[in-house]
Structures are given as C-alpha cells and as structure tokens.
Design a protein that fits this description.
5-stranded mixed sheet, alpha+beta, single chain, 10 helices
C-alpha cells in the first residue's frame, strides 16, 4: 500500500514539476502584425528562443541541421498567442511592443536538442539575488527609483535568457540590511542569505565617470566567486552585457552535453523523507534535473524511497550536481543520500 501511494504521489508531482517551468518551452518574438504570414515568419525565431533558453547558448551556430529543425517549428508548436509588453525608458516613458508567444512540445524540443548536439542547461534554476549600487556623482544608493528602467532592462534580458533573478526586498523607507560601503567593496560574505534554494548572489556597482558608466560585477554562489568589470555610455547596455556574461557562466557550469545515443540507468536511495512535503521536495528536485530523463519508484519503506533514474549522461554527472546543489547530502553508503534540512 505504501509503494502504491508513493507511485500515485510520484505521478502527481511529476506533473507539477513539468508545469513549474513552462516558460522554458515558450518562445517570444516581436511581430509587426497578428496575421498568418507574420505568425509563420515568427515561428522559427520563437523556436530559436526556446533552444537558446534550454541550452544556455546565446547565439546558436548556423548549420543545415538547425535549418531542418526550424523548418519543423510550426509542427512542434502546441499553442500560440499575442501579448503587448511595455519596457521602461530612461526618460520615464514606456515602449510598447506586440509579441507572439509560442509554446512548443517539450519532447520534440528535447529531441531537437539531442539531434543538434546542444548542451542542456538544467531546468531547475535557483534564482540569483542582485544587489545594484549606483553612484551617479552624488551619494551611493541601492537601486534608486530613478533608475527603475535599468532594473527593468535587466529583467528583460533575464527573461530572454531563461535566467532567474530576484531583487532583495528592501522597502524604500528602510535602511538596506547591509552597509553600502561593504556592498560597494563587493563583500558578498556580509549579505543576508535568501530563504530557500539559492543560485548565489551578485553585487553590481555602477559609477558615472564623465560620459561613461564603469561597472564591477562580483558573483558568489557559496562555492566559487567570480568578478569582472565593464563600462559603457549607456547604463542599460552595460548592465545587459554583464548579465549576458553572468548567464553564460552559470549556464556553462550547470549544463551537460546532450547525447543522441546511449542512455544510463542509476538507482539511488533517498532517506530522511519524514512526510508528504519531504517526498514532494525530493521528487520535484530529481525530476527537474537536466540529466534525469525519467524516474520511477523502485522500493519504498517508512522514511526512505529507492528511485530508478533514467539518465541522458553518465551517472557521475548526477552525483556532481547533487553534491553541488546540497539539496541531498551523500550518505555513508554508495548511492545513498539524505534529504537536507
């Protein structure tokens, strides 16, 4: 009965896990109209957008195989619609554009990724917290309101790349939870830790020097720290360039190479599952891993479940990802893990 219950629960949770990231299989492109001709013309570009988000590659290499896949874009689409989107401009106005949003069949897109030999960026992407400090010649300030357009531009780039970012919740009438001097110095160890699973934190400092904005980026995910600089006349362009670079770093780290042939099966035991919420957390996590193609319950006992995982890469990749994420902790025995608390 316990095994049957877990199997039923597994089916329900797998559905939830797939629905948690539908935007990764939705491509959006600007269109000049909503007619049939415009839709047919935009559909391949929408599929390219989906392939970019799932692979983490900003510019896909032009190949005959890619042309063949794009020729099947309309057949791979399961739905489309149009929406108007607004972007804030530096002068306080807003730019409105019409976009076509196309949803594609996940299995078909995953197959295309393998055929094209593209990497697969994991679908579960913990958000990265951004701290933006601006010095425009006056006092250094944390995300001042008059630069809301810059935040909007970063959100736009993040949406395009399938990159989850979040901003610290600091009310305008309250002091930041960390000293601005420490933020300006890039001291990430002083930042408050966000609740839940986190992809790390980034401090971006932007200082106006004459006609130029000079930026410094410090990214820390708790395991490694990377920093680099940038500059530009346009603040939004400079921020977009830096965010693209950060996305490239994270995507490369959290990707595996797709394989068109070969498959692996791995059995693991998860312990410390002391209730329904723990089961759901564990199942959602495993199902969202890019290396996992499918899973089933092999064994079940109070507080523990054995899973049979179908992998699209060697089992060592699975172990490396699990160790890095720290959602599951390696146990004393081989292929045994404990749910972290």
């Amino acid at each position: 009965m316990l095994r049957l219950t877990l199997t039923i629960l597994l089916c329900a949770v797998v559905g939830v896990a797939r629905a948690a990231v539908p935007d990764l299989y939705a491509g959006f492109v600007p269109v000049s109209g909503t007619g049939e001709a415009e839709r047919q013309q935009a559909m391949p570009s929408a599929l390219i957008h989906v392939l970019q988000k799932l692979s983490g590659i900003r510019e896909l290499p032009a190949t005959e195989e890619l042309d063949r896949v794009l020729g099947e874009a309309s057949r791979m689409a399961v739905a489309f619609y149009y929406e108007d989107r607004q972007r804030l401009m530096p002068d306080g106005s807003s730019l409105e554009e019409t976009f076509m949003v196309a949803n594609f069949l996940p299995d078909a897109v995953n197959r295309a990724l393998r055929e094209l030999g593209l990497p697969r960026w994991r679908t579960e992407r913990p958000p990265i917290t951004f701290w933006l400090v601006i010095d425009d010649g006056g006092a250094r300030r944390l995300m001042p309101d008059e630069y809301a357009y810059a935040r909007d531009a970063m959100g736009w780039v993040a949406d395009q790349r399938g990159f989850p970012l979040q901003w610290p919740d600091v009310p305008a009438d309250q002091e930041p939870p960390v000293n601005l001097q420490l933020l300006w110095g890039g001291f990430t160890d002083q930042l408050p830790q966000p609740a839940g699973m986190s992809g790390g934190q980034v401090i971006v400092t932007a200082r106006r020097s004459g006609p130029f904005w000079r930026l410094r980026w410090v990214y820390d995910n708790g395991i490694e720290s990377v920093n680099w600089g940038g500059e530009g006349v346009d603040l939004t362009v400079a921020l977009a360039d830096g965010l693209h670079r950060l996305t490239d770093i994270v995507a490369e780290r959290d990707s595996i190479r797709s394989v068109s042939d070969g498959a692996w099966t791995q059995r693991i035991m998860i312990r410390g599952l002391d209730g329904p919420e723990a089961y759901i957390q564990c199942l959602n996590y495993l199902q969202a891993l890019s290396v996992v193609e499918g899973l089933s319950v092999a064994t079940a006992a109070p507080g523990q479940v054995g899973f049979a995982l179908s992998l699209n890469a060697e089992p060592r990749y699975l172990r490396e990802i699990i160790i890095r994420d720290k959602v599951l902790e390696p146990g004393a025995e081989q292929d045994v893990y404990l749910l972290s608390r």
